[in-house]
Specification:
By secondary structure, the protein is α/β, with parallel strands linked by helices. It has helices at residues 30-39, 98-111, 131-144, 159-165, 190-196, 215-223, 238-254, and strands at 5-10, 13-18, 25-27, 47-51, 56-64, 71-79, 88-92, 115-120, 152-153, 157-158, 172-177, 188-189, 202-207, 227-230. Strands 7, 8, 9, 10, 11, 12, 13 and 14 form an eight-stranded parallel β-sheet that branches. The chain has a six-stranded mixed β-sheet with strand order 1-2-4-5-6-3, sandwiched between helices.
């Protein structure tokens, strides 16, 4: 079994991540063990905080201070540590400049969301992306923002396939940030969409590429229950629009 672990120190609190916690122990990989033991100078008997990436924080005591494989006994745990009161999925087309998509991924994770789905539209200029770096960004951002659940990162899927798959999620509030003006489908704000919702199991927001959705993609989304929404009068880049949408949901549930 491969153990992946990373560390982060914020607000005086050191947070480590272990992907595969045991029933009674947490094991840090070589990179994380070196950071814990060599850099932070922890020794056997010291207490550390470890998240499992699935929603729990573990208070642990080091039982091995090996810089290659540190081990810690689990003392107690807190489920839902750093969580939020909503379930948000962002289906966002990758940007031509990958740095912008990585920026969105980091900041959206810090604010609060549950999953990111890279969707490829007919007007997308980037159709391939490597998930490894995005995964590392999500891990670091989760710890930096004092959360215990790492957002899920899905594999790329076409916009049309994503829309078609949404038919199985009838209890989900499905929103689409759409730039095309269409008087037969007036757009409302995300706040108004959330206010008028009768209750839902989750929220899905679809954000198109730099060239926006095609008319065919938009029509398909509308036919599958997606509600057109706007983000204000400014014309926003893809990553800015996506982050504004995340912030709108976050702000709604803080009231």
């Amino acid at each position: 079994m491969t153990i992946f672990a990373f560390g982060y120190k914020v607000c005086g609190m050191e947070i480590f991540y272990s992907q595969y916690p045991g029933d009674r122990t947490m094991i840090l990989d070589e990179e994380e063990s070196r950071h814990c033991i060599k850099v932070l100078r922890h020794k056997c008997g010291d207490e550390i905080n470890v998240i499992d990436g699935k929603g729990s924080l573990f208070r642990c005591r080091l039982t091995s201070d090996s810089p290659k494989r540190a081990e810690a006994e689990i003392l107690c745990s807190e489920h839902g540590w750093g969580g939020h009161r909503y379930n948000l999925e962002m289906a966002v087309c990758p940007t031509k400049n990958m740095d912008r998509y990585e920026w969105f991924t980091e900041k959206a994770c810090e604010i609060g969301l549950d999953s990111i789905v890279p969707v490829i539209g007919e007007h997308s200029e980037r159709k391939v992306l490597k998930p490894e770096r995005l995964t590392r960004i999500l891990i670091a951002a989760t710890k930096q923002s004092l959360k215990s659940r790492i957002p899920e990162l899905s594999g790329p899927i076409s916009v049309k396939d994503y829309i078609l798959s949404s038919k199985d999620r009838s209890r989900q509030l499905k929103l689409m940030a759409w730039c095309f003006e269409d008087e037969s489908h007036p757009r409302i704000s995300i706040k108004d969409a959330l206010d008028s919702s009768d209750g839902h199991d989750g929220i899905s927001i679809l954000i198109g590429p730099e060239g926006d959705f095609s008319q065919e993609e938009a029509a398909l989304a509308l036919s599958h229950g997606f509600i057109p929404v706007h983000l204000g009068p400014s014309r926003l880049r893809t990553e800015t629009a996506a982050l504004a949408a995340v912030m709108s949901v976050y702000s709604h549930f803080q009231l």
